[in-house]
Write a structure and sequence with these properties.
- This protein is mainly alpha-helical and 148 residues long.
- Helices cover 48% and strands 11% of the residues.
- The chain contains 7 helices and 3 strands; from the N terminus they run E-H-H-H-H-H-H-E-H-E.
- The longest helix has 16 residues.
- The two termini are 24 Å apart.
Length: 148
Amino acid sequence: MKKVILFDIDYTLFDTYKFRRAIYQTIKEYLENKKIKDLDNILAETYIHSRTKWGIFIPERFTEDLNSKLKSNIPFDFIEKNIAALNLFDRHHYEEVEEVLRELNKVKNTTIGIFSSGEEGFQRSKIKKIIRHLHKDHLHIFMFKHDN
């Protein structure tokens, strides 16, 4: 009997909390001279609001919502540029992920894949470092996985 193991990405393979904190830190550094009171809370609240409003995390929409809230002018591609510059996708997998996937791949008649929500390019960037452990026919990334 063949088995397929499907992982979600966020909070399963990828530490989304630490990833978000790293994004917040780059935003705080960018806004350093503005001295905004309670910026940590504003960032967290804006993330929740944006995620609720759009259903998934979309960096441009989060930036738009943040700019509106702070009356600032953070460039729309700021987050994506900093993610790339800081290698944030490669640095925020849980430390045991590689070993677990490697061991699961040794199990006879077992295929490993993904079943996750989000913008496909963004989600694929999160798994780029570990893609060799995943079966290409089982990378199921939907805008809203609960609909599928």
